[in-house]
Prior knowledge:
The chain has one domain (3-64). Helix 1 (3-27) packs antiparallel against helix 2. The protein contains 2 helices and no strands. It has helices spanning 3-27, 33-66. It is mainly alpha-helical. It starts with a helix and ends in a 6-residue tail after the last helix.
Amino acid sequence: MDDNGMAKGLVIGLVAGAVFGLAVGMLYAPKSGAETRSMLKEKAMEAREKAGELAEKVKERASAMRGGKEAA
């Protein structure tokens, strides 16, 4: 598997794990439906932003490795 494929797999795995963990946590949280939905929406947006940032970092490192440079 090439670096790009590994990066995609990593990001997908991290996002899937975060979503699953968040969903399980919300099911056991003692809050009203409206509060839970609001919190789910907020956390989903945060997870999406973090996944985008992580994907960008992985792309930069993969690009640096292909160029023969060490990623910091």
